[in-house]
Amino acid sequence: MTGTLVLAGTPIGDISDAPPRLAEELAGADVVAAEDxxxxxxxxxxxxxxxxxxxxxxxxxxxxxxxxxxxxxxVGGARVLLVTDAGMPSxxxxxxxxxxxxxxxxxxxxxxxxxxxxxxxxxxxxLPVDRFCFEGFLPRKxxxxxxxxxxxxxxxxxxxxxxxPHRLDDTLAAMAEVFGxxxxxxxxxxxxxxxxxxxxxxxxxxxxxAADGVRGEIxxxxxxxPESGAEDVGPEELVRRVRxxxxxxxxRKEAIAAVAQEAGVPKRVVFDAVVAAKNAG
Length: 281
What we know:
Blueprint: E1 4-8, H1 20-28, E2 31-34, H2 37-47, E3 54-57, H3 63-75, E4 79-83, H4 96-104, E5 108-112, H5 117-125, E6 132-137, H6 142-151, E7 158-163, H7 168-179, E8 184-189, E9 197-202, H8 203-210, E10 218-222, H9 235-247, H10 252-263, H11 267-280
Parallel strand pairs: 1-4, 1-5, 2-3, 2-4, 6-7
Antiparallel strand pairs: 7-10, 8-9, 8-10
GO biological process, one term: methylation
Organism: Streptomyces djakartensis
EC number: 2.1.1.198
């Protein structure tokens, strides 16, 4: 019989948030695959657990090479536990390749649910949570980042992002440019840790705050786009949206068509607004 792959959530900050089953799985697994074996050692010491099985590293740099090895262990009947540094494996962390490969070989995959920065930030944000989408990390390059944001400019679900602290101000400024300065958002920093902070406000306001420098693990929650009609989006806003798309490399004709569809107005309305702004300038 084949073994079982167990994806285990680990605390995102406060170690006491570790689910009880995590200690049991760490103690009983035949193989523990960890994103960082040093952090795993600190975790097991805090939980008072000594893994009986073999401990191996499983991170972005060796994920492709180590996956076949772990799958063979699973096919041979082993119970393999996968843990990442914080949160749930596969969610912006290693794990997807191993799960897909295990499923392909008809290996049972289960999970030990645990803390999630995505759900915690959503709950604390004060923004609508009935429908949301997780966008992970944005591209590091400015042009690619703007392009990715443009793709979801009309998304009405609440958006959740992870971001590095040293890029937060640039990301919030780009969001303010694409989504609008007043779009509501929340920056959740160091969740469940000693210096936990949730900063709420408009995107431009948050970008100005972040310009002074921010530290820690960051999750950004952004309000979805409002339902818009011709009476809701004025000429200046239509022109701004076209300009954002043009600066990101889109041709004016395509930009006007995209903005019209996004705002729910005829293309002619957007075209006239762009022409009027050009003449006024």
